[in-house]
Design brief:
The structure holds two protein chains of two kinds. By secondary structure, chain A is mainly alpha-helical. Chain A is 75% helix and 1% strand. Chain A has one domain (2-346). A two-stranded antiparallel ribbon of chain A has the order 1-2. Classes of the chains: A mainly alpha, B mainly alpha. At the A-B interface, helix 6, helix 13, helix 15 and helix 16 of A face helix 4, helix 9 and helix 11 of B.
Chain lengths: 363, 293
């Protein structure tokens, strides 16, 4: 047992620390902030889905906000009109969106990356007006207002026993979202390290070579689309839970852009990337609105410009700068930094230049 | 019948606007195999420049020409600063960067000019003239004329000048052109400049119709995508024909298809994009591509 603990790779410890951090988070922040963090985790799930598609299978979607909308409306309609328990609708929403994504992946097979980007972008722009049309089903422009979830007794009892305060519905939403996040990230981790993940990466890095090695190109590409949409659908459903209502304007093009920002900033083709990216993409607009005006050293004109421009300028600049200077995102930067540092410390030759580091004694 | 003809004429006018923007997309696609998602936002920004000039009392057509020059310079500057460092990057990177550019320009325009929709002046009167039984407004005819002049100018530039020949050569075969002394990278910049100028024409023409505000091109760019895809994304002629077809189709569908109406016209554009990509990916005028494995 001790031997096993000692030989556990450091990344497992890191995972444990991160999970404990997220479980304990609502006990140190207030209920409103828990609601915010729940939305950040929702983004993380959707970004993970996008990451499976873009980072691992090399396809592109600029319309994942539309898949989130499908998931959210599925849950909202089932809960509102058919009085189902909202939590029970989440897997249904995920499966339905996944099937739709799988079907969408079939025509997408014939498209080059560029055309796929075009078509999905158009989908994202059109979705809000498509949702408004069947007004009696979707509630039209007003959308559907959802009841705040009531925490079950076992959860509120445990929570109040541990912290001494009652479990609010925001905190309960946070824990539901966290549970889904953990399950879906665990699934994604397993997916990308096994057969399907290897096949997807082979397709991404060289379609012809992958086909020659016997990888079913069409199958894995549509599978990636389906899984990716499933993640987006579950995220959309949880989004409705966290926000408390769904309306066509909850899912604008900006949401799809926000997902892309998160995926790119965190680091494509990485598992921790989507969490970092989601926290960045979610809190950047909130913090920049609250933090910038309080800073006296920033000239007033610049501060007011930033405030008026909203997150768009920062998002745009971050997207461009990340793609130019750090195409692998934060995770890529950390990994290269770590391996360089380790190389220096252990005297391993530099992998890129092949040079030995300077010997500390001779200098 | 008269209503039908009128819808066709105004459809051709909006089609001309889509065609200018689609042509801008085609110019950049031909130069570097990339669809510029920021094309619409660049046009929107140029339109704000024109608006500011006119608001300061400048003559409309003088402001028009100056805006085109500013847009041209802006396009070159963007290519040099943003696109140059990643010229050889994978297509995914380029697409994400142009999306970032679109978001950035949109936000900048919002912070500089605000989000209040403004009425943009038009040099053409809204009076109508009777052509073959259809009442066409001078506004529509003027838009058609301006678009036609711009498209013709681009055609002449590409097909009948040395610069145009060099640009086409650089796009067609970069290595060989470089060996013959063509500065391929600057030809890319020139392509961006031209595209930016052509695109800004569509912004200036559409602004009097839909009011000027930072998000005004968000729907127009989708129609332009549809036009470019329908025409075959590498064909300038296709962009023009595609633009007119999309303009007329959308106009007619909005009136004659009851389930489309005014608010789902954009969905028609999406349907056109998907249908073309699935049924005939090379569009009307595109050449089928053969890929060496």
């Amino acid at each position: 047992m001790i031997q096993r603990i000692r030989t556990t790779p450091p990344r497992y410890w890191l995972v444990l620390v991160v999970v404990l951090f997220f479980i304990g988070l609502p006990t140190v922040i207030d209920s409103f902030q828990s609601g915010e963090w729940a939305q950040a985790l929702v983004l993380a799930i959707a970004i993970m889905g996008l990451n499976i598609l873009v980072g691992y299978s090399g396809q592109i979607s600029l319309g994942h906000g539309a898949f989130m909308a499908i998931g959210a409306y599925t849950s909202a309609i089932l809960a509102h009109r058919y009085k189902m328990d909202y939590l029970a609708t989440i897997p249904i929403a995920g499966l339905l969106t996944g099937i739709l994504g799988f079907l969408f992946g079939v025509p997408a097979l014939r498209l080059s990356a560029l055309y796929l980007a075009l078509a999905t972008f158009a989908l994202a722009v059109v979705t809000p007006s498509l949702i408004k049309r069947p007004a009696e089903l979707t509630g039209g422009v007003q959308g559907i207002v959802l009841l705040p979830p009531v925490p079950p007794t076992f959860a509120s009892d445990t929570f109040s026993a541990l912290t001494g305060t009652a479990l609010t519905s925001d905190q309960w939403t946070y824990y539901v979202t966290l549970a889904w996040t953990l399950v879906l990230f665990w699934l994604a981790w397993n997916l990308v390290r096994h057969r399907a993940g290897r096949a997807m990466r082979a397709i991404r890095d060289g379609e012809v070579a992958a086909a020659a090695s016997g990888v079913n190109i069409a199958g894995y590409k549509t599978l990636a689309f389906g899984i990716s949409a499933l993640y987006a659908g579950i995220a959309g459903s949880l989004f409705g839970l966290a926000v408390g209502f769904v309306s066509p304007d909850t899912f604008p093009v900006a949401l799809s852009i926000q997902l892309l920002v998160g995926a790119v900033v965190g680091g494509l083709a990485s598992i921790p990337g989507p969490i970092i990216g989601a926290i960045f993409a979610y809190f950047l607009p909130i913090e920049s609105n609250q933090w910038v005006p309080t800073q006296t050293w920033i000239p007033g004109s610049i501060a007011s410009t930033i405030e008026k421009a909203g997150p768009a300028v920062t998002y745009g600049a971050v997207l461009i700068l990340t793609m130019i200077f750090a195409p692998n995102g934060v995770v890529g930067l950390v990994l290269t930094g770590y391996s360089r540092l380790r190389g220096r410390l252990r005297g391993v030759p530099d992998r890129e230049s092949g040079q030995m580091p300077p010997d500390p004694h001779t200098v | 019948m008269q209503e039908f003809l009128q819808l066709v004429v105004s459809g051709i006018a909006t089609g001309g606007i889509f065609a200018s923007l689609a042509l801008a997309l085609v110019l950049i696609y031909n130069a570097m195999g990339l669809v510029n998602f920021a094309q619409g936002e660049m046009a929107m920004f140029a339109t704000f420049v024109a608006f500011t000039l006119i608001a300061h009392g400048m003559n409309y057509w003088l402001a028009f020409v100056i805006t085109l020059v500013v847009a041209f310079a802006g396009g070159i500057a963007i290519e040099r600063v943003v696109i140059r460092p990643i010229e050889r990057a994978p297509i995914l990177t380029l697409v994400i960067v142009t999306l970032g550019l679109a978001t950035l320009i949109n936000g900048l325009a919002g912070s500089i000019f605000g989000y209040v929709p403004r009425a943009f002046p038009s040099p053409f009167s809204v009076q109508t003239v009777n052509i073959l039984g259809a009442l066409a407004s001078f506004q529509d005819l003027g838009v058609i004329a301006v678009s036609a002049v711009v498209l013709l100018a681009i055609y002449l530039l590409l097909q009948h000048t040395t610069v145009g020949l060099t640009m086409r050569a650089a796009a067609h075969h970069a290595e060989a052109s470089r060996l013959l002394g063509v500065r391929v990278s600057w030809m890319l910049a020139l392509g961006w400049g031209l595209a930016s100028a052509v695109g800004s024409v569509s912004g200036i023409m559409v602004a009097p119709i839909i009011l000027l505000e930072p998000n005004m091109m968000q729907t127009i760019i989708i129609y332009a995508f549809a036009a470019a895809v329908l025409g075959g994304i590498e064909s300038p002629l296709g962009a023009v024909v595609g633009g007119v077809i999309v303009g007329v189709t959308v106009n007619l569908a909005g009136v004659y298809l009851p389930f489309v109406g005014g608010d789902l016209q954009l969905a028609v554009a999406l349907a056109i994009i998907v249908a073309v990509l699935v049924l005939k990916p090379n569009g009307l005028f595109g050449r089928p591509t053969v890929r060496r494995v």
